[in-house]
Amino acid sequence: MPNGGLPDDRPLPVAVDELATDRATIAADRWRTRQNESCPTVDPRRGQMTAESPSRDEPAQPTNAERIGVWLVGARGNVATMSIVGARAIATGRAETTGMVTEREPVSSLELPPVSAFVFGGHDIDPTSLVDQAERQCERNGVPDEETLASVRDDLAAVDERIEVGTAVNCGAAVTDDSDHLDRELAIRTVVDQIHDDYESFRTAHEIDRLVVVNVASTEPELASPDRYDTREALEDAIDSDDRDLPASVLYAYAAIDAGHPFINFTPSTGNALGGIRELAVDRGVPHVGRDAKTGETLVKSALAPMFAGRNLNVLSWEGHNILGNKDGLVLEDEENAAGKLSSKGDVLESILPDVGHNRVRIDYTPSLADWKTAWDYIHFEGFLNTEMTMQFTWEGSDSALAAPLVLDLVRLIVHADEFGEGGFQPHLASFFKAPIGVDEHDFSAQLHWLYEYAARHSDV
Amino acid sequence: MPNGGLPDDRPLPVAVDELATDRATIAADRWRTRQNESCPTVDPRRGQMTAESPSRDEPAQPTNAERIGVWLVGARGNVATMSIVGARAIATGRAETTGMVTEREPVSSLELPPVSAFVFGGHDIDPTSLVDQAERQCERNGVPDEETLASVRDDLAAVDERIEVGTAVNCGAAVTDDSDHLDRELAIRTVVDQIHDDYESFRTAHEIDRLVVVNVASTEPELASPDRYDTREALEDAIDSDDRDLPASVLYAYAAIDAGHPFINFTPSTGNALGGIRELAVDRGVPHVGRDAKTGETLVKSALAPMFAGRNLNVLSWEGHNILGNKDGLVLEDEENAAGKLSSKGDVLESILPDVGHNRVRIDYTPSLADWKTAWDYIHFEGFLNTEMTMQFTWEGSDSALAAPLVLDLVRLIVHADEFGEGGFQPHLASFFKAPIGVDEHDFSAQLHWLYEYAARHSDV
Amino acid sequence: MPNGGLPDDRPLPVAVDELATDRATIAADRWRTRQNESCPTVDPRRGQMTAESPSRDEPAQPTNAERIGVWLVGARGNVATMSIVGARAIATGRAETTGMVTEREPVSSLELPPVSAFVFGGHDIDPTSLVDQAERQCERNGVPDEETLASVRDDLAAVDERIEVGTAVNCGAAVTDDSDHLDRELAIRTVVDQIHDDYESFRTAHEIDRLVVVNVASTEPELASPDRYDTREALEDAIDSDDRDLPASVLYAYAAIDAGHPFINFTPSTGNALGGIRELAVDRGVPHVGRDAKTGETLVKSALAPMFAGRNLNVLSWEGHNILGNKDGLVLEDEENAAGKLSSKGDVLESILPDVGHNRVRIDYTPSLADWKTAWDYIHFEGFLNTEMTMQFTWEGSDSALAAPLVLDLVRLIVHADEFGEGGFQPHLASFFKAPIGVDEHDFSAQLHWLYEYAARHSDV
Amino acid sequence: MPNGGLPDDRPLPVAVDELATDRATIAADRWRTRQNESCPTVDPRRGQMTAESPSRDEPAQPTNAERIGVWLVGARGNVATMSIVGARAIATGRAETTGMVTEREPVSSLELPPVSAFVFGGHDIDPTSLVDQAERQCERNGVPDEETLASVRDDLAAVDERIEVGTAVNCGAAVTDDSDHLDRELAIRTVVDQIHDDYESFRTAHEIDRLVVVNVASTEPELASPDRYDTREALEDAIDSDDRDLPASVLYAYAAIDAGHPFINFTPSTGNALGGIRELAVDRGVPHVGRDAKTGETLVKSALAPMFAGRNLNVLSWEGHNILGNKDGLVLEDEENAAGKLSSKGDVLESILPDVGHNRVRIDYTPSLADWKTAWDYIHFEGFLNTEMTMQFTWEGSDSALAAPLVLDLVRLIVHADEFGEGGFQPHLASFFKAPIGVDEHDFSAQLHWLYEYAARHSDV
Ligand SMILES: NC(=O)c1ccc[n+]([C@@H]2O[C@H](COP(=O)([O-])OP(=O)(O)OC[C@H]3O[C@@H](n4cnc5c(N)ncnc54)[C@H](O)[C@@H]3O)[C@@H](O)[C@H]2O)c1
Ligand SMILES: NC(=O)c1ccc[n+]([C@@H]2O[C@H](COP(=O)([O-])OP(=O)(O)OC[C@H]3O[C@@H](n4cnc5c(N)ncnc54)[C@H](O)[C@@H]3O)[C@@H](O)[C@H]2O)c1
Ligand SMILES: NC(=O)c1ccc[n+]([C@@H]2O[C@H](COP(=O)([O-])OP(=O)(O)OC[C@H]3O[C@@H](n4cnc5c(N)ncnc54)[C@H](O)[C@@H]3O)[C@@H](O)[C@H]2O)c1
Ligand SMILES: NC(=O)c1ccc[n+]([C@@H]2O[C@H](COP(=O)([O-])OP(=O)(O)OC[C@H]3O[C@@H](n4cnc5c(N)ncnc54)[C@H](O)[C@@H]3O)[C@@H](O)[C@H]2O)c1
Ligand code: NA
Ligand code: NA
């Protein structure tokens, strides 16, 4: 199939050259108005939609017999723990797949690896064992329930053995205060090498066919002037010259993509959003996605805001208050660490409702809520004849129960992209993220539509 | 352009033969999974997508110099009054067009008649003057405000002169108890003829180029076994044999479409949803749309429910409670009259979430709210690992301020369809309705997408 | 202390002669304005405030060494089950007393029997064992948790042995459809005698010192014209002449009070609210309370409505929607059975806000909620310069977890009243009920104040 | 009647010596448990309950023929404007008294001056005229409506003539940035003298019989270490030694009370809460009240929190989010100015629920809301058997429409206290304030009960 596997008449999404000087993203309005245009020309040597990406030697044919390594950065956190618990419980038939997008039509018609094929490992900086973490979640939140927990306890203990101490460079006081396991004296290049070695040892030890690295670690403070690392060259120079500003998420992403492992950034941290990493991924033909999974208030926003836009209602103010009680909330109490989260949450609205009068998001830490995240949003809008009206909603979700199935979905889907040699960012996975790399479209339906088109396209193969 | 102006490669919407025995509607799942299919064959003699519809002699070229007659059935009701107030205030530059879908990209790029070209008239069964109605709304609800009202008072008085007494056959006790202006002794055919004469006198008297009939009258009780009027022949036989079961909305629709006037059914009443009327519209090549405008709780549902579906979350219960204080609310207190409304509200959810465990909608009359409609929805859903979560929202909208701009939009858009000879039901207008005739898709984004495609297609012309 | 142990200068509550022709209740406004009045004269022979009630031979001195029999009518229902689970878990130190009013100052300063002294038994018409019921609650609602349940499983099994088949006379189809264990052929007097025998056998078998009967059975349909049983004589005549209109709750109450056992009516059923039963209780000097425990939405109302009243805000509409998923909800789906509940819920508001414009309460059955009761209340009110404002709240409570501690409180407090020979209705316990027998005051603070005064008065003893 | 008109047996409130070393407040728990105690002895020479306060020469007999001067500090603000509009509209029979506590039983049975007797004047630092302010409120908020506004426009213009430029010493940048009308070079004593002169000129010019000063100016930043002004002597020394730390509210209060004028502090600013001012008020026998009127979220809290306490429910977290759009909100955006407000709002909860796990109040500025204040409160609580439950509420009120009637109430009530020679703080007016001076009781019902007792006591006179 010429030009990247996309039929000539496909309306969405429109692929663009990711390496153009302006680092153009896929413009939102294209979805709405130019859906009959043919696909822009993509440089076959390095576009992410190209089947024959030069540096990859994976077969294009999917095979479900593979052993998929899932390396979780932040492997003992809530999201990681719930993902492992869920995957193992599903594998043994003890849990259902509710909440997994890949288990529902039309995405389920893709040939995707079963979660039973997942072999977990990871990095963390917290020594508390995975079993203890799961027990705490069971006790505080009731999720997982005792029975499910019992059925996976041995698996958790086994995975815990495969968790290595990670790096916490530039993760902010809120994160590193908790930890004294880290050698802060190492050169950045050495840190990268160690991470790389951890990946490879795991691959070898567990006979992994394909390794996916997933960042589910605590949110880092925002990186100042990320533009200085906008090219692969600038980034690699920085690593080599021991630039102490580079945050951990970038190092994990670099080590993964450089070695050809697909990378998922579930967090708001910089990671693969950096220009230099994106260029590296195109060069290596490695698929990567991110950032900041869309699981609660922002998900609702991305479904509701288009309604106000579509009806030409004038949103005067949209106030969002989030309260949550887990460690993620504690880290986000730190203004530094919260900055990135708040900006990715805020951007969604600005993009869908460019004329919104007032748009504020607050995140507060409320310990008693444990893993429950409650959001109250208040929307003040104006309609016909200047009539002012309001809508408000409250969302009460279990944070990690919303996140975990998406981790599993993303691993399955990035494996699929990897099998088909679709390197670079993955616009069809935009619906999973608050700040989808390379995509300006924040309308959840539009994003989902891209995913369904991807599924339709690949199901015909 | 062959087969109805639709390019072969258009993914959505998929046109079907409206007259197939099962009165097939456009299947929702098509949008999601078969978007690359080519358009099904439409019988060129009578399909609604055909340019050369035999019975129409309108020019295909749009012209904005026309005088558009807008005949409102229920012309002194809240929705009608607010529509007239708004149209006149916009025409004189005193009001903005917030809330009008046709005033926003991409629909605004269509060549549509300006609202200043609208000449209003109508039927009602309540003698209270339009000026009094508007003053009451101003006083009770603050909409319109005093200044706007003052600027259109003369226009309202002029329109009021053009309101004729309508028929209230089978409108239910809740409606007809209010009225003794109706001759219940007339034969049904005579009633139809009188309605027809009222349309034509208005056309002549006001030099109307194109007349659109809009049903904004009170909700009628549901018609029992509508299937008996499933063909044009059966319907016309019933009229001729003085079948006293036919409700007013069907008579208004019949008289309009039979005379070639586009018909909009803003209400849940039967009207043009009847098989016989739909066949007549195809025969006559007249565009018609309906039913039950989607302005509040159901609108939100149609934007939110796809989010739960898209994330494979399992909705256990969706409870919707509506309280409203206007005359519409009073009529809906009557269980008979409410039945249709409740079913069109409920269907939206069943369609988007076929596995929803429990789905109830309540409408209650709360006089102090006047024109304000408040809805509380409580959504109990289950995610990963059987985790139960909840979302709730409250919507507080001014009923007629939400409805009126859509009336103006629909008139403009049906005029456009009429100019282009696009007879029959109008799938691209599905986003305006709770129970869109001929369409099974209830996802607001998908429906809107069809409208945008229509706009894109016609903007290229 | 003369006239019933009440100091002359006590401002609240004002006792009245319960047997006056109009069955006067304690007027609400007294609390607010006449609190310095001295206590009205009470007929010493039969007033409920009298220490020397003729028919009682209990010692006035409280003693905690007693074994308290708690006979639950509806012993296998949710409330009963949670009460037994809680009492046993508290007795063994495995649960805390959160939610028990008697465990907090100033009520905790009274000398009350410990819950460890409670010996449970009861009537039911459903054969499902108490252990099964508790397991179902644990599984569906997470309350009690598995650990607590395990610790009381043996106790539950033991209590289950002491549950007799009760009568379901006039309990409505919603209740009796579930049951075929009842002999409908027995004469009413025989039924009363059997109930009486069940009480006495239990007393003897378990060496009970003091027996309290608690009605926690399903809500019955409202009794038509209860006035016909307004005297003890009329009631006893009806029993003897086999009047088939008498509902089960009256029979349980009659058998209890006639035999000198304090009676608690936790439900909206008629029971001890009947004039004839009230007269019997005065004659026998037996304390009794009811009806319809105030645990959720109505509790909030009784705390909030006085705020609107106190600030002279004009409540235009108060809408209350309750959704619940347990068997109580299922029974209340039946309009007949719901009538009493709705009226006791509605009265609270009418009493506190006599000028409320519109006051509606809805109860709907939403199975997925299991034992969770969610209420949404919408309050539309008017303030200064006709400014319209709104307040809304959502309450999400576990029905039986809110009810059970009050069952334990009430048993402890009625035992106290019984020890002090305080027969008749118990105005100081009004705060526990939606429709407190003999009391018109619905302001929760005022009701609570009476309880605190009672505690202060008796702590001085 | 000896000792201040309080009957010996009055249960509440319990008066204490305001000048005791610890500046003891009226303990909350007294209300609940010691309500039968007799009133503590009050030093007749200086207690605030004393009839024969030495420095006052007002007649003890109330007379309604008086002209009451109402001097508003912040006379052009929202609250002031709405108070004047309302008072004048009531005086001319154009507005009702909804929202006024003094117009409802039992308080209405007191002999209070009619609002028609009020003559308004005041200080402000903003030159925008009262008419302009009222027009802006009408336009932005719809309150007052156009008709009411028209009827009082001349009165507003007349009052505007009587508004003098005030002082803004230490009001914070958020306030003074708006103003350059202030001579910052004057000595503090000179400022006090000028304020005093403004009061006296107004009195003379308008033949005022009794002058009440009301602080409705913008919230000042919190005063650091207020203890240094804990005695009258320390305060007067500070004034004389030109202490530049003293904030404007203290100077306004000092000038008023020193000259014998009752003082109402409607704001969270220091004012009469200062020890030195309180001592001065006792010495002069002048009644004063404050601070921070309780009109919205905190009012609801003070009605609801006692319900959780009374039922022994364990509040784990109480989150309160306020959004408001008026100038008060803008000033409170400034963290300095917000501090006092947040602390008085927070204290209410700590006092009623001493064991509350987590208690946060946020105030955010949301311009589109204009005068509307919306609060969302989320209450996470634990009941029996550790069952976690939640309650949430949303309050949507018009800020100044809630405040204005209370300004009028307080003027009427403080005039009454003044007529009866009841100097010092006024515990019976605690229900009006978030941080009632001299009172620890925050339960709204208990506070209201004191007011009703006061009314009952004085109605008997
Ligand atoms: N839960 C959701 O719904 C959701 C949604 C979007 C994004 N996220 C993001 O996912 C991430 C994880 O969330 P969580 O709730 O599991 O948080 P968590 O605090 O429970 O877990 C984070 C884990 O990362 C570890 N960690 C921190 N810094 C690390 C480092 N430098 N290297 C290796 N490990 C490190 C911590 O020790 C911890 O075990 C957060 O960034 C959060 O913002 C979560
Ligand atoms: N307002 C909305 O947001 C909205 C949304 C969807 C549908 N609708 C529907 O629009 C319709 C109008 O709503 P409304 O709020 O204006 O109601 P309304 O009660 O204010 O007005 C209805 C008018 O129709 C007139 N009428 C009744 N029966 C008639 C008949 N047989 N012939 C002619 N006139 C008749 C009445 O006299 C009245 O003037 C209702 O059916 C309502 O359900 C409204
Ligand atoms: N849970 C609360 O917060 C609350 C509050 C106020 C009142 N109530 C009332 O308490 C009662 C019990 O509530 P629940 O949730 O436990 O209900 P439930 O349906 O779980 O239990 C009722 C039990 O009563 C039994 N029963 C029915 N009729 C009987 C009869 N005639 N004789 C003996 N047993 C009979 C049923 O078999 C069932 O086991 C209801 O009337 C309810 O309205 C409950
Ligand atoms: N509205 C309510 O419900 C409510 C409730 C409790 C407390 N309050 C308090 O009442 C006060 C007034 O509220 P508002 O909404 O009217 O605010 P506002 O900002 O509309 O009015 C305040 C006025 O005070 C003036 N001012 C500021 N500093 C002054 C000074 N030093 N001397 C004289 N005038 C000065 C301002 O110029 C302005 O005109 C605020 O402190 C607010 O916190 C209001
Ligand atoms: Na149609
Ligand atoms: Na009682």
TrEMBL record, chains A, B, C, D:
It comes from the Archaea. One of its GO terms (biological process) is phospholipid biosynthetic process. It holds the Pfam family NAD_binding_5. Residues 296-400 form the Myo-inositol-1-phosphate synthase GAPDH-like domain. Residues 27-64 are annotated as: Disordered. GO terms for molecular function: inositol-3-phosphate synthase activity. SUPFAM superfamilies: Glyceraldehyde-3-phosphate dehydrogenase-like, C-terminal domain, NAD(P)-binding Rossmann-fold domains. Belongs to the myo-inositol 1-phosphate synthase family. This is Myo-inositol-1-phosphate synthase.
